[in-house]
Design a protein that fits this description.
There is one protein chain. The chain is of the alpha/beta class. Strand 3 and strand 4 form a beta hairpin. Helix 1 runs antiparallel to helix 3 and helix 1 crosses helix 9. The relative contact order is 0.21.
């Protein structure tokens, strides 16, 4: 049985994927395909490289990984992801999809042609950067004569490229929005509106998955709030453990 994993985008909330992966790997689940966008592409590629979720968390904590993609709002113009490129090369030195231990698909948005692109072969770092290049904050990434931006713009939960290749698909989504009774700030208004938009097709996407793990309230975390890195990890880990105990499909998978 081939098991697939889908990882959503979500800024710093993407750390939730690590908590979910920790619980699933502890349960003995191994993946044959991974598909991710934005933050999910970062986590997915590092995990596909063979780095354990706890070790990836240590990388995030030790190097303050998200500071490399945290925008300086006072800077003139868009921010470059060049420093992030250098950091990724430390952990993905082969810079190729073929060098990963698990076949992986990374989603980015082709800005020129206004369409989604699924990268799965050739160079790896540029597609990761493209998938993470949030518009307004970061410079687009040029690849083969085209310009690419954040994959979440057109597909924040890329289950499509692996759904025909897997017998069982587990999705990890880190954008659940709790009910809001007030507008905290203009920034939160914009962030919440964007998350509402990218979540709009989750019900349809969920039909392609056998199991969805979606820790509650993650979408309320500001995209760049790095202070919550460890808290997000443990909340997601506990949510995944609860899912393992209560979801009949997961229990059936573990029994095989």
């Amino acid at each position: 049985m081939k098991i697939g994993l889908v990882l959503s985008g979500g800024g710093i909330s993407g750390v939730a994927h690590l908590g979910v992966l920790q619980a699933l790997t502890e349960a003995g689940i191994k993946f044959d395909r991974i598909s991710g966008t934005s933050a999910g592409s970062i986590v997915g590629a590092l995990f596909a490289q063979g780095i354990e979720p706890t070790e990836i968390l240590k990388v995030f904590m030790r190097t303050h990984l998200y500071k490399y993609i945290r925008p300086a709002l006072r800077a003139k113009g868009l921010m470059s992801l060049d420093k992030f490129r250098t950091l990724l090369l430390e952990y993905l030195p082969h810079d190729s999809f073929e060098g990963l231990k698990i076949p992986t698909v990374i989603t980015a948005t082709n800005f020129n042609e206004c369409k989604v692109t699924y990268f799965r072969s050739g160079e790896l770092i540029n597609p990761i950067l493209a998938s993470s290049a949030i518009p307004v904050f970061f410079k687009p990434i040029p690849i083969a004569g085209k310009i690419y931006i954040d994959g979440g713009i057109l597909n924040n939960f890329p289950v499509e490229p692996i759904k025909s290749e897997c017998d069982f698909i587990i999705g990890s989504s880190c954008n659940h929005l709790p009910e809001a009774d007030r507008i905290e700030s203009y920034r939160r208004l914009v962030e919440r509106s964007i998350i509402m938009s990218i979540n709009s097709d989750m019900a349809m996407k969920a039909e392609y998955c056998d199991v969805i793990i979606e820790p509650q309230g993650m979408g309320a975390t500001s995209v760049f709030d790095v202070r919550k890195t460890e808290e997000i990890y443990w909340l997601a880990y506990e949510a995944a453990l609860r899912k393992l105990k209560t979801d009949l499909k997961l229990q059936g998978l573990l029994a095989k």
